[in-house]
Specification:
Layout lengths: L3 H7 L1 H13 L1 H10 L4 H16 L5 H25 L3 H5 L1 H24 L4 H28 L2 H25 L11 H5 L3 H11 L6 H7 L3 H12 L5 H14 L5 E2 H6 L4 H11 L7 H14 L7 H26 L1 H24 L7 H18 L1 H12 L5 H30 L4 H18 L8 H12 L16 E2 L1
Parallel strand pairs: 1-2
Helix pairs in contact: 2-8, 2-9, 2-11, 3-8, 3-9, 5-8, 5-22, 7-8, 7-11, 8-9, 8-22, 9-18, 9-21, 12-13, 12-14, 16-21, 16-22, 17-20, 18-19, 18-20, 19-20, 19-21, 19-23, 20-21
């Protein structure tokens, strides 16, 4: 038996690939989620100055708010555009080339940000934000594909969950570089917005040293020799019979069939329950209320007597908490299992947020309530990091065979990014209308997702892709047996 230290030494190249994919992949998402809060006032001032130069009058408050909202929300639309192309680019060009192209998009976006003040053009910020969104939407999906298709079964859960670790790290780094002691100043805001170009350049240069995803080489391209070389280089292992046999079985189910569209994926019975598991608890994670908690956190901090200029540092504590708990999740997921971590995680989030609604209602009655509410916020973030945050990134890589995976990520990305766009646009109005009772929407989602995971979805830990598909076929084809239907699996995906 190999010790943990021996395994770490053996797979060091795979871990290095995971680092490279994370820095240029999901790290970018976390970075963009948090980095826009710091330069908001500076960008609005720049917008007003630009408007004054062009039209000889200051911009109206409503117009300024509208343009700022569009600057923030256009990122989600870019993410959706990138997610749509995640079903075709990785299939046509491969996972590696798709990421190289994606990094060029981010670098161009960074250039737009740097030059926006020189050109006196807030439109360049809009274009840069859209390009950043495209980079994140495509990069997040391909990151998960690449890691999942390069990992051995025993490490698949841990390595795919590093996607969430890098999101948490990106959020924390975005908050850190945005403080006024670093880049959160009037003079530095264009360079702050261009920070995403750095990880893009890093991934572009580093990825050239790594092979294509092994499963893509074998199953999609039919190149067994290249697949074997890639596995031997990444895993430093000579005995690959079991892994290659698993890929061979998966490839055989896909041979001789025409490519299916995303519409076919939505209508096909053979992946119906996988699709439900992808959309409800995973892609729909935006509805769990984590963004609402970040919104309410600052109000609760103020009520507890936290000084305004110290608020940003307390937000670093929130980001750090999420990062630590997601990291812990990465080490326990292959022992505890995806089903329990996500199911009970959603259930606990629903319970804690229910208590939070009550506490926010009686916050003025007792002096200790605001401090208790801070504890509740950190509790929800801990549970979110230990369960839904990590598993929602890890589980999709387990659900679909190679041929279905790109299309599945198109659907997942579409639901995820359009949900983020809708919540970003409507949430301020929901808060204004419902106040703290807006959490009831998120409580309902959490309870429903918990019941769905715990009662319907089979466990996927420690199983091959074919074994997982057989488990889901018991749900997809009740009374028809559990054999995988050859005609339902294809090599490529088209949109």
């Amino acid at each position: 038996m190999k010790t943990t230290l021996q395994e770490m030494t053996q797979y060091w190249r795979l871990y290095l690939l995971t680092l490279v994919l994370g820095v240029g992949g999901s790290f970018q998402y976390g970075l963009h989620v948090s980095i826009m809060a710091s330069p908001a006032e500076h960008i609005k001032t720049f917008l007003n100055q630009t408007w004054l130069i062009r039209y000889g009058a200051p911009v109206g408050e409503s117009t300024c708010t509208l343009i700022w909202s569009f600057i923030v929300s256009i990122f989600s639309l870019g993410c959706w555009a990138g997610a749509v192309h995640s079903g075709s680019l990785p299939v046509k060009y491969g996972r590696k080339k798709a990421l190289l192209i994606n990094n060029v998009v981010a670098i161009v976006g960074a250039l737009f940000m740097i030059l926006s003040r020189i050109a006196q053009s807030f439109e360049m910020i809009l274009i840069g934000r859209f390009l950043y969104g495209y980079n994140v939407g495509l990069g997040l999906s391909v990151h998960l594909m690449y890691v999942g298709e390069s990992s051995p079964k025993k490490l698949r859960g841990f390595l795919t969950l590093t996607c969430s670790i890098f999101i948490g790290l990106g959020k924390l780094i975005g908050q850190m570089v945005g403080i006024k002691e670093l880049m959160g100043t009037e003079a530095m805001w264009p360079y702050l917005l261009a920070v995403s170009g750095v990880p893009a350049i890093f991934q572009f240069l580093s990825l050239l040293c790594f092979p294509e995803a092994p499963r893509y080489l074998y199953i999609d391209k039919g190149d067994e020799d290249a697949c074997k070389k890639a596995l031997q280089w990444l895993w430093q292992e000579e005995d690959l019979k079991l892994e290659l046999e698993d890929m061979r079985k998966e490839r055989e189910t896909a041979q001789g069939e025409k490519a299916k569209t995303v519409l076919d994926v939505l209508r096909s019975r053979c992946v119906r329950w996988q699709l439900l598991a992808l959309v409800i608890p995973c892609a729909g994670v935006q509805f769990c209320g984590i963004n609402a908690l970040y919104f309410y956190a600052f109000d609760i901090f103020r009520e507890s007597g936290v000084e305004e200029d110290k608020m940003h540092y307390l937000s670093l504590g929130i980001g750090g908490t999420e990062l630590i708990t997601v990291t812990i999740c990465a080490f326990v997921i292959d022992r505890a299992g995806r089903k329990k971590l996500m199911g009970f995680g959603y259930l606990l989030m629903g319970v804690i947020m229910s208590v939070l609604i009550v506490m926010l209602t009686i916050k003025d009655l007792y002096t200790w309530v605001p401090y208790f509410n801070i504890a509740l916020i950190f509790s929800v973030i801990c549970v979110y990091g230990l369960g839904p945050s990590g598993v929602s990134m890890c589980l999709p890589a387990d659900l679909f065979l190679q041929a279905w995976r790109p299309s599945a990520y198109v659907v997942s990305g579409t639901v995820n990014w359009l949900s983020l766009f809708v919540i970003g646009m409507l949430f301020p109005y929901i808060v204004e209308g419902l106040g703290q009772f807006c959490f009831l929407i998120f409580v309902a989602y959490c309870i429903f997702s918990a019941a769905f995971m715990l009662y319907f979805i089979p466990e996927t830990k420690g199983k091959t892709m074919v074994e997982i598909t057989e488990d889901f076929n018991k749900l997809n084809f009740k009374g028809r047996g559990t054999e995988i239907e050859k005609g339902d699996f294809v090599l490529a995906t088209k949109f």
